[in-house]
Amino acid sequence: MTMVATSEEAVQDSPTVRRKSNKTLWLLAPGMIWMVAFLVLPILMMVYVSFWTQTTFKIEPTLTLQSWVTFLTSPTYLGALWTTIRIWLLVLVSTLVVGYPAALFVGLLIKNKTLQTVLLVLCVIPFWTSFLIRVLAWRPMLGTEGAVNMILMKLGVVQQPIEVLLFSELSVIIGMTQIYCVFMVGPIAFMMGRIDSSVIEAAQDLGASFWRIFRTIILPLSMPGVVVGAIFVSVMVLGEFATSAALSGRKVNLLGNIIVTQVGSLKWAFAAVAGVVLTIIMGAVVAALLKVVDLRKEL
Amino acid sequence: MNAGGIKLGLGVYTILFLIFLYGPLVVLAILSFQTGPEGGPQFPIIEWSTYWYRHLFGLTPPSRIAPLPIDQALIRSLSLALMTMIVSTVLGVMSAQAFRRRFRGSGAAFYLIVLGMMVPGVLVGLGMALVANTFGIDRHWWSTAFVLHVVYTFPFAFLVMLAIFNRFDPSMEEASWSLGVTPARTFRRVTFPLIFPGVLSAMLFAFTLSYDEFSRTLFASGRELTLPLAIYGTFSVEVHPNVFAFGVLTTLFSFALLGTYAILMGLSVRRAKRVSIQEDA
Q1: How many beta-carbon pairs below 8 A join chains A and B?
Q2: H or E stretch including A184?
Q3: Would the CB atoms of A42 and B94 count as touching at under 8 Å?
Q4: What is the residue range of B220's domain?
Q5: pLDDT in tens, chain A (299 residues)
Q6: Do A35 and B112 touch (CB under 8 A)?
Q7: Least CB-CB distance to A242: which of B10, B150, B232?
């Protein structure tokens, strides 16, 4: 090569560069158009419709705040909002508590690469099976004649079957924890696997206790994994309605359930308001989680 | 407490964790062999039988328990998953190819794509239903639901391909071209074998995620049910072991897909190794 570009402009103007950026544009355009038309537009439509006028069976594009006023003054909707936030927090904490030790073991303490891969695969396989079947599988587990009660009674732990196990808030939390802890274990185990074992060995040689090593090395280095897992779990739990419908016997109504019922009775504007509220909560949660750890710096 | 004790404790905990993860599915599988039609969805097993599996395929005499509406639903779900797989993989490969060069606005484009897998189905589903209503479009599984399935699975395909292209050395392609190999042959002999594991993973993601997709389909498809919608329909009524039998079969189907994927991946790795040995020799 004898010709050397002397400035940015020369590079920009050279025909090969322009042809290449045209190629980039053509490669990118279909995906971008798809996402704008079928993701961004529907979300904007939802925001727009939340200000439409709702009559008994249809909506009219006359702008009003009526649906918002109804939502914000109705104890049912506000109750659902509070339930959603409560369940989300409980499931977030329980997936972390249940998943973290397993991720610690699989990602850090297992030195055998084959065993580690097998355990990781075992942890993520449920991700590839039907979500609804996994929800439904809790019904024969938790009922008064269910497997858990049967085992507890055989062992003599309880005399009477525990009724609160199924069709309660507890059953929803148990079900969601099992379904979503995969998304917590994966990212944490991934970050654990990247911890340089010589750092831990050095700390051990210097006489640090396990708890000290955990507090000062393992926990801080696994935090990005916790944040990524928390983002996955939060977004999915906040958008939930099937688990609560199947395992709570209609006792737990999340915002997602409100949307489903409102759509079922053709109250589109109310459903849209609930959807916008949900979007705002999710945006706030994700933004707050990203504040905790700067992912771009860590990953 | 010493490190060995902690490791043992965590090991035991991980076994309990795996039981928690798989226990419900195992119980469901056992109960699917309950006798029928009088046996209910709980222990004890009155008598082992394959009644509910035969019930699923309409091979039992009619009883008060209606069969699951799965024959048409299965065809719809498989076609939808196939369509979604093809479109998502093509879009994923194209977009990831575009990201091999740095360009202005690449950050925004990246987030727009990833948004598709993050936004919950209930929100896009509702939005799509509103768009369809406003513009007077009929909702069908092959139209409005299909485009949402692609919105959901295309980001997975994109991320997988991005990871593949990040490790991809463009000088291999250039070397092939400069040796006078035609672009088509280069793609077949150089580019495709290198990106094949990624394409396969992208296809697996897109197919299985679409096959099991539920919340987007619920809002965006019309009256014709897909498999997950047929299952969801049973949630509101009494559950019979026929749903369990169906759950076992669909889980086995997912495992078969994973198995096929693992075999194909293994073959492509072996082939790559063989090629590198030939080069070394």
Answers
A1: 234
A2: helix A169-193
A3: no
A4: 71-237
A5: 334 444 444 444 556 666 667 888 888 999 999 999 999 999 999 999 999 988 877 788 889 998 999 899 999 999 999 999 999 999 999 999 999 999 999 998 888 889 998 998 888 888 888 899 999 999 888 888 888 888 888 888 888 888 888 888 999 999 999 999 999 999 999 999 888 888 988 998 998 888 899 999 999 999 999 999 999 999 999 999 999 988 988 888 999 999 999 998 888 999 999 999 999 999 999 999 988 877 666 65
A6: yes
A7: B232
With a threshold of 0.90, tell me whether the complex ipTM lies above it. Answer: no
B201 lies in the same domain as B176: yes
A122 to chain B, any CB pair closer than 8 A? The answer is yes
Question: Could you tell me which residues come within 8 angstroms of residue A247 by beta carbon, excluding any fewer than 6 positions away?
Answer: A135, A138, A139, A142, A166, A167, A171, A172, A175
Q: Which of B90, B91, B44, B35 is nearest to B65 (CA)?
A: B35
Q: Kindly report the length of chain B.
A: 281
Measured between CA atoms, the residue of chain A closest to residue B6 is A210
CATH class, range A65-298: mainly alpha
Residue type, B110: F
Residues B102 and B171 in one domain: yes
Cα B84 versus chain centre, distance? 10
Number of domains making up chain B = 2
User: Which chain B residues are within 8 Å of A39, Cβ to Cβ?
Assistant: 112, 115-116, 119, 124, 151
Query: Where do the structural domains in chain A lie, given as residue ranges?
Result: 65-298
**Chain A residues within 8 A of B21 when measuring between CB atoms:** 122-123, 126, 178, 181-182
pLDDT in tens, B44-54: 788 888 888 98
Mutation target to probe the B interface, by most B beta carbons within 10 A, among A18, A22, A45, A149 is: A45
